[in-house]
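Thread: quick sanity check before group meeting

JM: Hey all, I'm pulling together slides for Thursday and realized we never actually wrote out the predicted structure for the chain we discussed last week. Dropping the sequence here so it's in one place. If anyone has concerns about the input, flag it before I start.
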Amino acid sequence: MLDIKRIRENPELLQQTAERKGLDFSVAELLARDAERRELLLEAEKLRRERNALAERIARMAKTGDTAEVERMKEETRTINRQLAHIEERLDQAERQFTALMLQAPNWISPDTPIGRSDEDNVELRRVGSPPVFAFPPKDHVELGELHDLFDIPRGVKVAGSRSYFLKGAGFFLHRAVQQLALDLLAERGFTIMDVPLIINEEALANTGFFPSGREQTYELAKDRKFLAGTSEAPLVSYYAGEVVDASEPIRLAAVSNCFRREAGSAGRDVRGLYRVHQFAKVEQVVICKNDPELSEQMLQQLTENAEQLMQLLELPYRVVAVCTGDMGQKNYKQYDIEAWMPSRENYGETHSASNLHEFQARRSNLRYRDEGGRLQYCHTLNCTAVATPRILIPLLEIHQQEDGSIRIPEALRKYMNGMSLLTPPQ
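JM (edit): ok, ran it. Output follows.
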């Protein structure tokens, strides 16, 4: 959510922001609802003042015994109450319409965010490592998974429908190993590691900007009026919702959790393998810091660096891209994606996303701190994937495959794999 004062001062800029993000949003309508509610609020306050003045006069007149005048003023009070009830009903409706539009308003865009319509317009910032050149016909991750019995997609589909899978044996242990590697890395860098609720209420998702625009991607437990979290970002930021925190130092939080997404609108896309699934696990980084653009930019770079360090430990070639306006969504102020080289796609595929949201989530969540002068300020919040699996298994298996079908395990993962350095195909 944004500061309405800033919107009033910069309506054209916000409309341009919405258009650049590809959002159907009318700033004019928002400002009309804002003006309506402010006018109704003034009318309501005026009527309340008149009613209070009448109450004082009635009390004084009652002492004089002038019952006729007292009754006349009581009737005037009843008229005011009827008018006030009507105004308050209209005010309540106007407030609800205004709030609904405020929840749809896009976050501002950083000056260095590229302008574009889709991920094709994202701007590559750097590449680390080179795509491998195989001296043999490489297998994709599905073939490697079947060869090593690492996962079973057909039975996953049988049990749970499309985009489902079972992880098995070494596949499961690789899945857990990359998570533990990420958690250990973040713990060393001062993050508080948490286990978070995955069944959360609507308020937590609205406060963190996943509702209303992301509602179709979220699994709902209608009977309980709860939702399955699509990322631990929502419960991590909501942990401090409604509180005044000590932000003298950035608050660093991380969690590993299962994540659930409907993948609405992705029919026919990435249907083979583990790239786009309904259930996955993710280690997520969240930072809550002072309302200082220079500081939160520094935090964004640190979060991205953490994710890059993980990719380097996994010995995977990757690139970092600046996400353009049309690909970044409603809530982000600035975003980077990290994309690993995936031989089966003959291209880079997204594995991480890092975002700076400035005050957007904190205003919705009423998450504040006191500045040096004791004044309450809204925090800045940031998030970044540390690792998401099983998607990370795609480059991990494909990049490290050998000609005989074996798969080399990166050194950083071996201590989590009981010292295993190579996955050998069953004889």
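AS: nice. Residues 27-64 form the longest helix (38 residues). DSSP finds 13 helices and 18 strands in the chain.
JM: adding both to the slides.
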